[in-house]
Design a protein that fits this description.
The chain is of the alpha+beta class. The chain has 4 helices and 5 strands, in the order αβββαββαα. It folds into 2 domains: 80 residues, no CATH class; 79 residues. InterPro entries: DUF2812.
Length: 179
Amino acid sequence: MMSEGLAFSEEKDMKRLSDMASKGWVLDSFAFMGYKLRKAEPRNLIYSLDYRAVNDDSMDEYLDIFENAGWEHVCSEYTTHIFVAAPGTKPIYSDRSTMIDKYKQSEYTLRYITLFMLCLTAAFTVIRSMLFSAEATVLHNTIHILFIFLIAITIPASLTYAAAVFRIWRVKRRNPNLE
């Protein structure tokens, strides 16, 4: 199942996963640009995300916290973890301050990835402009192709980062007293 992008439509993706579970397709793992589902008995489930960098030594303790709250770990990819529970289970994030903390975890990682990509793209822009000549060389063509590749990665990374910052702003706007 394709994802619409967690930074842009996390709630919608989780709702679609719940709908698919009710049709007998439950989440198995992350896949390229989406999720891998497996056939199972139709179930009424709710899905939720957590963004947290957890090292291997702390993973069992981290998962136990969610399990004790009624959430079962389904899969993880880097700092994104998906959990599932029965309807009526207390939400993982039930107040604005913890929601902000959740999204700040995601924003922190995205900030450095985006900054790195912007710097790399800027460097290639300078190199590309220095090598620009009327005569196309293999080096010039290679730099140009790499530049286009970097642009194709940098633009979505920047938009994803902007969406993460906007999400934090939107949650804070609901209660301006939160940091």
